[in-house]
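Continuing from the previous page of notes. For each protein in this section, the sequence appears first, followed by its structure tokens. Read the first protein now.
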Amino acid sequence: MSTDYQQAREALGARLRELRLSAPTGRLTGTQLAGRYGWHKSKISRLENGKTTPTPDDLRMWVEATGQPEVYEELLTKLQGFESRIRSWRRQLAAGHKPVQQTIAAVYERSRVVHGFESATVPGILQIPEYARSIFQRYAELQRSPRDTDEAVRARLKRQELLYVTGKRFKILIGETALRSLICPPAVLGAQLDRLAGLVGTDTVQLGIIPFAAPLKLPPTGGFWIHDERLVTVETWHAELWIDDADSIATYLRTWKTLRESAVYGTDAHNLIFASRRALLAR
């Protein structure tokens, strides 16, 4: 978690403590406040010390309990300010996977040039429905989130319409691992490889594949996506990072360009896909 994020969370916690101690009807103890809503008493200290991120409902109940409802908008603005940088999956997926897909689709729609890198999975923007379904099912199990798989798949496929919009460019790098990882049934992976092969050489998609045997100037890490050099999104196991400061964006763009030096395109990319297809059939 970034230092800036944690400092912002601690500042919000300090403001919550201030409101509790300055309640117009008299200061509330943490035990009194927790008891009002049936919260565990440790929740108060964790919120006030910046150990836990409050939800909008937490903030609303806090200002009501302390008799200061007019402060709610101030607190919500602070929360939204730092959550726009680090968006926990727990909170994003509370309403299911479909809303998350719609949010990221809006970012793609605004973007003219998208640079992307994924080391071990086929990117969502290139996935076939069955592959996407396997991904959503596995992440719903991991995150214990609502299983709105069909709706999420439809939303992801809707985003793929952008691949055919004149003027947009998708410059995507994937590792050869993505061609062979059985995150889905073998037949589904086979169909997904056929889909990738069909995208090689299209007008809007420049697909590069980094072979296992390629010399690397950088060790590939997690995936990231750069939108018009104005925003970088990075997925981790606990959250999605939205990075918009110029220096960090420049670093990710340099990283992408360095990884690109190890990628192959066109016929060589086709050959890797077909080799993976043959290996799959030989299992």
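Done with the first. The second protein uses the same format. Note its length before scrolling.
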Amino acid sequence: MGRLMTLTLARAGCTVEVFDAGGPGADGAAARVAAAMLAPLAESAIAPSMVVRMGHHALQRWPELLAPLAAPVFFQREGTLVLWHRQDAAEAARLSRVLARTAEQVPELPAMKPLDAQGIAALEPTLGTRFAHGLLLPDEGQLDNRQLLDALLATLQALPQVRMHWQAPRTLDDFKPGSSGQPERVIDCRGLGARPQWNTLRGVRGEVIRVHAPEVTLSRPTRLVHPRYPLYIAPKPDHLFVIGATEIESEDMSPASVRSTLELLSAAYSVHSGFAEARILEIATQCRPTLPDNLPAFHQPRDGVLQINGLYRHGFMIAPALLDIAMELLAAGHSSLAEHFGLAPQLNTDSP
């Protein structure tokens, strides 16, 4: 969110200074660990229609944001494939009802398509007919989060009006916007780092595994219905696959548990046996910055300060929508786009 804001403000003619507690590689940031799927209908299994609408908006905006970057970023819109094993048919039926209700609430979404075994095999030939039923959620997509972070960094480093300060943590108390020698505005995109000024923030733990699997070919993100949490396999270029994501109400940042690792890898193997010979490149743990209602929020605790936070598990999916809302708020003090989504920014209020 911070890098997107910086680039957009710089291109609008602003001089921008970025203070980041981490380094240029975004190590320690939730954005580096994420799978970066852009799947509004799929996410409606746990997300309200507001988030779905923001995700649909973002699918149109991402190509516009990616086109001028200094390096290419993998982006696709081949849809999401939802599969389930026979023993999870009841849970799949419940999910189908949820998705159908979402389609009624957000009619601009493409209609989901039920699939039989032959339909699944036609989309993903390497899966054969091991699954009897599935769903295709058309036009959903994904991007490569690490390529995006790197491309944004390279683009920002080439702009003379942007200065970036690494290993330089700051709080809102370090700035007095509008005062002599101070910035005109401060934009706070610190995620969990903002908790000292936003005490309702919490972390929601997730574990993600990255593997290299030359024997596996999948053309689109594949979600496997699971009785406890959504499981996905997101194929990136060169047979790299991101497998996730557990969701645990905990701020524990210790390494992944044996249980979670076994569940994620077993789920991947149950989708495609080629994962048996995959090589594990990384098992990452991170906490998502989350507010009590699991929704994103804007706050203006005082004049000249705008806080953006609470992106939860939907960061890449909704970031362009939040970017567009933020630019409207900065320009006019209100946002018609936020009203369209049903999001109510809290402006000129006390700190949350």
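What the second structure shows: Residues 1-352 form a domain with the D-Amino Acid Oxidase; Chain A, domain 2 fold (CATH 3.30.9.10). Residues 49-66 form the longest helix (18 residues). We return to this in next week's lecture.
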